[in-house]
Amino acid sequence: MLDPTRNERFPIGPFVPPAEYTHETREDALAQIADLPQQLREALRGLSDEQLNTPYRDGGWTLRQVAHHLADSHTTAFHRFRKALTEDFPLVTAYPEELFAELPDAHAPIEWSLQIVEGTHARWVMMLQDTPDAEFQRGYTHSASGRQTIEHALHLYAWHGMHHLAHITHLRSARGW
């Protein structure tokens, strides 16, 4: 039984950026990006198709959809970061996440998305580890949320990965999987 006192939509709480962006907060966020692929693989290990097709909350995505969403979202973010490092605050567009989650490939094996997340995160971390500090003030203009620096977006996507990982681990714990 799911715990009615826990916020199942935001199990780790909403995104709150650091009070101050520092080299240390950046390193922490980058470590979360680096660690997510293995944590995601471990969180999904051994689940049956029935379990993968279980929504993490009433009205929420299935665990399979969460895995595919992370691949979609984080490859999009990686591309946005690359644009931000090579263009002057380029316009990037939002995409209909809910509709993406309903496309036919939403039923694909999770292994495909795990491999995408692993490769994307490896390149993302490599790119950012060698990015000079000043470049983290570059950014993009998001069609829905406005101007964002790479620094801010890095923390947002680190949170995003942990947010969806918690959807999986909390459901597993609640169901005794």
Automatic annotation (TrEMBL):
Identification of the protein by name: YfiT family bacillithiol transferase
Domain DinB-like: 34-168
Domain of life of the native organism: Bacteria
Keywords associated with the record: Transferase
Keyword presence, Transferase: yes
Repeat recorded as keyword: no
Any Pfam family hit: DinB_2
Annotated InterPro entries: DinB-like, DinB/YfiT-like
GO-annotated molecular function: transferase activity
NCBIfam families reported in the protein's UniProt record: PRK13291.1 (NF009807)
